[in-house]
Amino acid sequence: MDESTGGPRPGDPDDPAVGTGGGDGGEAAMDAAADGERAGDADGGTEEFEGLDERVSWTVPGVPDEDGDEPAPEPEPEPEAAEDAPPKARSRAPLWAGAAALLLVAVAGGVWALGPSGSSCDGAPVQVAVGADPGIASTLRGVADRFNVEEHHVGTRCVRVTVTDVASADYVRRAPLRARYDVWVPESGLWLGPAREAGANRVPPLAPTLVGTPVVLAAPKAAGVDTGGTWKALLDGGLSRRSPDPAASMPGAVAMLALKQVAAGDVDAGLGRALGKGVPLAGLLGPDRGERPLLVTTEQAVLAYNEAHRPNPVEPTVPKEGTVLLDYPFAVTTADAARREGAQALLTALGTRPSRDALQAAGFRTPQGTFDAARAERFAVPAARPKTLAPPTRAALAAAFRAWR
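and the corresponding structure tokens:
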């Protein structure tokens, strides 16, 4: 039971989504949680993202900015920090370097230790609930399963992590949903600002990057679609073009940002209707073989699909103008001191070799946007970091969110 909301938290015995499962099973219970988030200012450890413009001010998807007629949502009151909450971190080192430093400091101070341990856990476990974007949630569940077996500790208590699928846009817009989680892993750091403007003042403005994956154009190799290696292929009416809604998906927003940068004069308000709703990659290989489909998605989604469908591969294209790397930041939001320590233990575990291997085996690049040579050869993609677009301004990101409205 969540102490501050009165509703079940992931991992509680009475939570229907208990365990390291996720998906939509807990949605009803999420909506039944109390309206307020757990009290406390819990700025997590932060790390600057490559390509993230710190000058950007953010606008919430679906909520007009200061030029609109509707007022911005009233932010949640900033609660006082817990007396025993750990100090804010300011590390800008890579994830595993920062995690290693956390490990040395924490073990030296006797705060938490990493298992496996020869002694049994003492007292109730420290439950850490992670809400992760569906693009990475299943991979994080595998890491969490191993983490739980290894018996990581906060003091003498074992840490137990649960990972639940939470769409990034849903987390931004629904305060009762946010209240259920101690850690948020959205698909991109570009969601952190909109969440804070929606009143989620415990979401840090920056957070450590877990992985990188570029937004790409994808088409079945057998279809012979010629994109010309450019975002302008999305303007080709001869293709069956599909893109996720930019107000609900960062890949969709990135496509709109890119088109505005490379083809501003050719983009009009009807583009959203022309593109149509995004479909899963499996939908590209439907019964109508006469179609020439083109989909906006992520490189990771393509690589994971191809691993399971080798006879019918989909070909990813990073447009020559550049793209945006989705970075899946690890944002600690809880004010509870023990859960914060448990979250830091998980962050450290995510920086270990087995966890990094699991993430890259799933098709994610390193936080720097690279693959090692062997992995790149297996996936048939370049090992180097893809070319990136200029970081979006507040106005550009807001316009991308509203592009289909």
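(Above: one complete record from the training split.) The chain has two domains: 35-212+327-361, 214-326+383-401.
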